[in-house]
């Protein structure tokens, strides 16, 4: 069985393996598998080996943090000082930030070993990772299928054991949906629980950084390492979670009230529905109390999400003008022409679509009908979640209405692809935490994910239920053969 | 609600984007579907009149801001490290004589 972060930490401390040896095993696996999987878009092996040497020193000196010497990956929209950070967009070609994102600064101090930056949908806009300017990553479970998105490379790297863990970002499901498609664990923390400083912005009121891991325990360890308030992100909160969220993992689900909203199950693939129902039955059998609840405003969550996210994106992406960094068009006769040509050549179609929609909903005459109304409905969705959490401790739902799409799936219009985010976006709109855990496979052998949603800053109960399910259900999905083999 | 090619052109100008004729045809068709999708919120519950509050877990009021103190800034050479600068400034080709 694949070692988790705690097992590796023990091996490192017992000198059964050094951080350098561990890192080399991951580098070998990446060299072997990444040309096919395309999970990483920038490799940082030299830096990884140096960090591993330092980690070995920290381990020798004793009192090293749990993530010291553990090889990992970052999504390519998380700023790393002096290392490429491109959001997988042509417009950020060659961009090397001059500061570290807070999450990376924290992990570096704890001795993390960065193997590279992972593939993603351009500017995190997509559900398949196929809008990446580097081409799509492939799903390690079946390379004819997509990884999901937008943190597709982060999910593929963890799934194929090309990183022990990775960080992704989740604006409308971008951690949980690829975690579901690749059969790994993905945690979207409460909005504000993790600093967004240095995360290249898409929808600022929705974006949140979180871990993709091979187990719930690993997700708790990584969340512990990156959470906390930050002066450089005014929306972050220094919430008192206690010393470690791993402490809540040993509790069972007896007496916990688990909410099931039928709105989450409308239009869901029957195979997925039946796996989630089996999981709910397992939790009930172990003492959880199932509450059937309603969230009527949920049917509006998807258009509300696309209006708000695109409005924020059209403003956030206004900064890409070719003047200060990234791609600049080759020839122009005026500054205006330079900016328009740079943006038109530098952005891909999906990014342009979302900038255009955002511009539309914010423009005079349409603002009240779309943006303002979407914000009011967002309030209603928040109120419904608040009310539900007065009678439930967590909600259980599918992570996605479908399993992974085939690569280059041509049948879908942009709106059909947007519909695949239907189960994940309400969580971002409400700013609450949620995790996706594997709960089985479909007839094609593709992974299915179950989502556990909690109240704000109650990651403890979310992780507790997820861990209990993971341990009680046993192996619901076959282990991936290959990768670093550790 | 059908959106015209002229409206798309106007939006593109606002968004500082340009499209070829072929792209414009495709975008107009796709945009119609996207707007119809966004429009579903207008066929639903009426929004209330109450104030919109931030979804952020922490409400920031103007009383809550730090004092306006000068903080250290990044050095010029770092800021200019991603482009070819000129005398410590960002530079673009001369476009008007």
Name some characteristics of this structure.
heterodimer; A: 486 residues; alpha/beta; Amidase signature (AS) enzymes; 11-stranded mixed beta sheet; 15 helices; 11 strands; 38% helix; B: 97 residues; mainly alpha; Histone, subunit A; 3 helices; flat
Structure notes:
The complex is a heterodimer of chains A (486) and B (97). Chain A contains 15 helices and eleven strands. In chain A, a hairpin with a 5-residue loop joins strand 10 and strand 11. The model of chain A has no long low-confidence stretch (mean pLDDT 96). The N and C termini of chain A lie close together (9 Å). Chain A has an eleven-stranded mixed beta sheet, sandwiched between helices. Chain A has helices at 5-13, 19-37, 45-61, 102-109, 152-159, 176-182, 216-226, 270-285, 301-316, 335-346, 349-362, 368-391, 414-418, 425-430, 459-473, and strands at 40-43, 71-75, 113-118, 165-169, 185-188, 209-213, 257-261, 289-293, 394-398, 434-441, 447-454. Chain A is of the alpha/beta class and 486 residues long. Chain A is 38% helix and 12% strand. Chain A has a single domain, classed as Alpha-Beta Complex (Amidase signature (AS) enzymes). Chain B has 97 residues and is mostly helical. Chain B has a domain at 5-43: Orthogonal Bundle (Histone, subunit A), CATH 1.10.20. Chain B has helices at 5-14, 21-38, 76-79. Chain B is flat and about 50 Å long. Chain B starts with a helix and ends in an 18-residue tail after the last helix.
Q: What's the architecture of chain A in CATH terms?
A: Alpha-Beta Complex
Query: Termini distance of chain B?
Result: 46 Å
Number of strands of chain A: 11
Tally of alpha and pi helices of chain A:
15
The top level CATH class name of one domain in chain B: Mainly Alpha
Main pleated-sheet profile of chain A: 11 strands, mixed
Could you tell me the number of beta strands of chain B? 0
**On the 0-100 scale, what is the average pLDDT of chain B?**
79
Radius of gyration of chain B, in Å, reads 23 Å
The stretches of 5 or more residues of chain A where confidence is low (pLDDT under 50) are: none
Note the gap between the termini of chain A.
9 Å
Strand content of chain B: under 5%
Instruction: Spell the H/E element sequence of chain B.
Output: HHH
CATH topology description of one domain in chain B: Histone, subunit A
- Sheet with the most strands: spatial strand order of chain A: 1-3-2-4-6-5-10-11-9-7-8
Order of helices and strands of chain A: HHEHEHEHEHEEHEHEHHHHEHHEEH
Q: What is the number of helices of chain B? A: 3
> What is the 3D form of chain B?
flat
């Amino acid at each position: 069985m694949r070692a988790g972060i705690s097992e590796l930490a023990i091996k490192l401390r017992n000198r059964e393996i050094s951080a350098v040896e561990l890192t080399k095993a991951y580098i070998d696996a990446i060299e072997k598998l990444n040309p096919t999987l395309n999970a990483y878009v920038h490799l940082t092996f030299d830096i990884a080996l140096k960090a591993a040497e330092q980690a070995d020193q920290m381990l020798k000196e004793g009192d090293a943090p749990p993530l010291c010497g553990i090889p990992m990956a970052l999504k390519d929209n998380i700023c790393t000082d002096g290392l490429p950070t491109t959001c997988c967009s042509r417009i950020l070609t060659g961009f090397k930030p001059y500061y570290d994102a807070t999450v990376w600064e924290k992990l570096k101090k704890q001795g993390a070993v960065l193997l590279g930056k992972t593939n993603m949908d351009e500017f995190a806009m997509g559900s398949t990772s196929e809008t990446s300017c580097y081409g799509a990553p492939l799903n390690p479970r079946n390379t004819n299928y997509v990884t999901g998105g937008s943190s597709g490379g982060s999910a593929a790297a963890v799934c194929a054991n090309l990183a022990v863990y990775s960080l992704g970002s989740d604006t409308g499901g971008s951690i949980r949906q690829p975690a579901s498609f690749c059969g790994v664990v993905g945690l979207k923390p409460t909005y504000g629980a993790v600093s967004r400083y240095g995360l290249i912005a898409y929808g600022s009121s929705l974006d949140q950084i979180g871990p993709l891991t091979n187990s719930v325990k690993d997700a708790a360890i990584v969340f512990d390492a990156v959470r906390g308030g930050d002066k450089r992100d005014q929306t972050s909160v220094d919430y008192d979670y206690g010393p470690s969220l791993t402490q809540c993992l040993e509790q069972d689900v007896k007496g916990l009230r688990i909410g099931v909203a039928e709105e989450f199950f409308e239009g869901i693939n029957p195979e997925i529905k039946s796996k989630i129902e089996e999981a709910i039955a397992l939790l009930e059998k172990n003492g959880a109390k199932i509450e059937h609840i309603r969230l009527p405003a949920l049917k509006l969550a998807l258009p509300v999400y696309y209006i708000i996210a695109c409005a924020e994106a059209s403003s956030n992406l206004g900064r890409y003008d070719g003047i200060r960094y990234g791609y600049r068009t080759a020839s122009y006769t005026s500054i205006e022409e330079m900016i328009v040509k740079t943006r038109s050549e530098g952005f891909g179609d999906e990014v342009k679509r979302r900038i255009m929609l955002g511009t539309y909903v914010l423009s005079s005459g349409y603002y009240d009908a779309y943006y303002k109304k979407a914000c009011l409905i967002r309030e209603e969705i928040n109120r419904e979640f608040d009310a539900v959490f007065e009678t439930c401790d967590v909600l259980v739902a599918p992570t996605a209405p479908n399993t992974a799409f085939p690569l280059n799936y041509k049948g879908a219009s942009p709106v059909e692809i947007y519909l695949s985010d239907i189960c994940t976006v309400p969580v971002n709109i409400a700013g609450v935490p949620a995790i996706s855990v594997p709960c089985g496979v479909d007839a094609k052998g593709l992974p299915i994910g179950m989502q556990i949603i909690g109240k704000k800053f109650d990651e403890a109960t979310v992780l507790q239920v997820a861990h209990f399910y993971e341990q009680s259900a046993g192996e619901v999905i076959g282990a991936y053969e290959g990768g670093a083999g550790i | 609600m059908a959106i015209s090619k002229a409206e798309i052109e106007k939006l593109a100008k606002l968004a500082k984007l340009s499209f070829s004729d072929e792209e414009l045809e495709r975008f107009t068709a796709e945009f119609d579907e996207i707007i119809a999708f966004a429009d579903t919120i207008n066929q639903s519950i009426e929004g209330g009149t109450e104030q919109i509050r931030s979804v952020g877990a922490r409400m920031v009021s103007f009383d809550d801001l730090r004092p306006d103190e000068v903080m250290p800034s990044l050095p010029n050479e770092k800021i200019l490290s991603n482009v070819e600068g000129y005398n410590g400034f960002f530079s673009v080709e001369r476009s008007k004589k």
